[in-house]
């Protein structure tokens, strides 16, 4: 077992003693694209369920006007109960704890026979959220896997507190399984006083900060929304940049954004092929008693081998092998 | 109220229970340019007071040679008592706590009838500074607003300890009101072993780090000095970069630097106009029960609205509307 | 004494009460290049000892296959005991604590009459490492200086825990003297999910993070390996970039990498000359009672003086003056 994985499992062992240990972030479901749909639009939800996107997120928060919150809860609960989402994961974005709407959101989406696969929350108040979910699910937590939780980070203080928030959540994986963290870039830009400019790297520091903290805890970091939804080149560039800095996926707000984003977060065929050859060469050298060797002018050792193996596993997961 | 603001107020509520809550960093006085003048030069202080710069900072520290400290204290105290600074805020940069000069600096500038509007300090020792100020101001703290405090961060350990320093200061806003944090780039470069190069981004990481921490606590981050004071293009570029990464202002060391810097940290007219139109459109949609909508091909929701409102408020504050 | 140094010494005073205080990171031995050689290759070790590299690191870990660990321990111990390394520092890279190999590694390299000058470790378990070393060295710790320790940081959690790891090590400098920290970029890329791309700055955030933490504690940050060892231009560019962001040295994996790397981490002659002139001008102004002055159109004060002095001291140390 590699050192990197060893350290990870150990840490998770510390903070998630109650949960089964997990080998790697790659065992989590792919969340390359996470599509928001307004929770009060039955028509848009119906369409979203057929798009083959990794995650459909029914939004009860920013996409729903104040006077439509009740309608959105009802529509979202009905969709969870009656609609088939195919291979897409069903997530619900509930309102922030201090908004006054969160509790009713949780009741609506957790009281049905079919639980959402994931909750997206801003988690300013971890304890409140977990206590409410525990109360609402009660004995169901004995028999069913708890819903996955995806937190949102969208303020300067949220960035500073990421570690504490993750540790607090991972201490109670019997209630909600924290698996990913979303960067909410618009709120964050306002909070950090960043000037809005397309094409600059104003959010790169914050995005790398989120990647560092999420990956350190074995979680999937989910990148910011690209709001100029008619600019497909810009979207593709930002998605590739996100993958390059360690993001596992990206929020999308329009069906046309799904394919470019899911492609960007999938391995290229030539990467898959190189990884396969590298693994084979590594295993041959290992059997001959050589720990490090040269492959295409690069020194190869255990960590490089690990990267290749991870890439192949993920390619298989998203149907590329 | 937006989530970002909500989280901010709450945190400040926790750490500054004794202070009146504050809506936003925009209620702080503008500190787009902070001009240093040697505390021992009556002539330079007199000229600085007439330049219309947001902050005039009488420097008792680096700009004053060891043998001139007493003269500088006397000159600075006299200027505070007798000179009109117009709309400029009067700040005093005291020597570091461990220099042996700090205590006398505080006595000189806090014993007069007219207190400085802001103290700039390096705050290696928060407790010492606050205790001394409390002792010197005594009963005056009942009747007058405590002076504002601007801390300096200028070492690697200073960066690592920013959060703890801010929390320690914000716990005692009845003595000094922490409102801003200056990045002292020259000391910082020495401390971090950065190679001095004009035009590279060697300090960008540290600057973004300061922005993140300051903004998280609702404070104004003040950017590094641009020392090549004859290069106006370089100055303008660095000032715009500072604004883009979230700085609220920049230290200046020459009168010719004031206008370009204050311009760089003010909104452009077309930004003001776009913000006005965006706010209007948002409020119309909100009344029609729509939470998110399209404006110039961008998806607009609450956070975007908040950014536009902030921009308009600030423009009014610096006389641009 | 400058504020930056003052803050540093004070902090170190807090965390390393038992150790002699130290003026600056420049009093540490130069570690511009750190060359790995497989611990089981007597021939390669012999050659490495003659190359004039600042540090020769006998690798018992990644460069040694599982079945060769015993042979490597024996060969490394023999080299430490019998071979002259000239002016090169002798370091040993032991296996990670949780690998099951670490204890035997320590026994092999610490039981000889000649201790290694430095141990390189991943330090997931600081306490275990220090306890074992203390047990193995026992009474020798009274008479001899404890070995220097260079830790490796190579996972997201490792980055998040840098401060805690440094503080834990620096509390026990009577057992091992923590002096430097290596960035293990390959493992780190796997841990953070970074996409492998030559020529991009995927690891820059992590590298700056390591620099910030190491420099804050007065330690030397040692940069990542450049694995494409036939590309000398790429190597030179990355080495210069490392120096520019504050790295003190770089790991190397091939003899041909030593000279370009050690050059990159040494001052240029014109820098040395400028520093000399600047120091002279500063001291003249200081004697005339002027704290800040203009030198080649730049405002010069104490911090700038400090940078110049540091540069001259280091140049002397590596034989450039």
From TrEMBL, chains A, B, C:
The keyword Metal-binding applies. Its cofactor is Mg(2+). One of its GO terms (biological process) is regulation of cobalamin metabolic process. Keywords: Magnesium, Metal-binding. Substrate binds at residues 93, 154. Mg(2+) binds at residues 154, 187. It comes from the Eukaryota. Coiled coil: none annotated. Residues 32-255 form the HpcH/HpaI aldolase/citrate lyase domain. InterPro entries: Aldolase/citrate-lyase_domain, Citramalyl-CoA_lyase, Citrate_lyase_beta/mcl1/mcl2, Pyrv/PenolPyrv_kinase-like_dom, Pyrv_kinase-like_dom_sf. GO terms for molecular function: (S)-citramalyl-CoA lyase activity; metal ion binding. PANTHER family: CITRAMALYL-COA LYASE, MITOCHONDRIAL, CITRATE LYASE SUBUNIT BETA-RELATED. This is HpcH/HpaI aldolase/citrate lyase domain-containing protein. It comes from Chlorella ohadii.
């Amino acid at each position: 077992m590699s050192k990197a994985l060893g350290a990870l499992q150990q840490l998770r062992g510390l903070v998630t003693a109650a949960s089964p240990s997990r080998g790697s972030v790659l065992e989590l479901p792919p969340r390359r694209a996470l599509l928001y749909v307004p929770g009060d639009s039955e028509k848009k939800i119906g369409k979203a369920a057929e798009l083959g996107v990794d995650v459909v997120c029914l939004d009860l928060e920013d996409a729903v006007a104040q006077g439509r919150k009740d309608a959105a809860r009802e529509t979202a609960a009905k969709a969870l109960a009656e609609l088939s989402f195919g291979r897409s994961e069903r997530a619900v974005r509930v309102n922030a704890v201090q908004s006054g709407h969160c509790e009713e959101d949780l009741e609506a989406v957790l009281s049905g026979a079919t639980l959402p696969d994931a909750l997206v929350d801003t988690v300013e108040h971890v304890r409140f959220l977990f206590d409410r979910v525990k109360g609402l699910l009660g004995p169901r937590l004995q028999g069913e896997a708890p819903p996955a939780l995806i937190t949102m980070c969208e303020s300067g203080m949220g960035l500073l507190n990421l570690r504490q928030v993750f540790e607090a959540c991972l201490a109670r994986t019997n209630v909600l399984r924290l698996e990913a963290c979303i960067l909410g870039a618009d709120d964050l830009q306002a909070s950090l006083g960043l000037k809005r400019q397309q094409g600059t790297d104003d959010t790169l520091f914050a995005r790398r900060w989120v990647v560092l903290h999420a990956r350190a805890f074995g979680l999937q970091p989910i990148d910011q929304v690209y709001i100029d939804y008619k600019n497909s080149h810009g979207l593709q560039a930002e998605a590739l940049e996100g993958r390059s800095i360690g993001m596992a996926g990206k929020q999308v707000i329009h069906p046309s954004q799904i394919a470019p984003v899911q492609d960007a977060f999938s391995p290229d065929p030539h990467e898959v092929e190189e990884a396969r050859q590298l693994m084979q060469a590594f295993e041959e050298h290992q059997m001959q008693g050589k720990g490090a060797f040269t492959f295409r002018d690069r020194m190869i050792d255990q960590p490089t081998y690990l990267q290749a193996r991870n890439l192949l596993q993920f390619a298989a997961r998203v149907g590329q092998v």
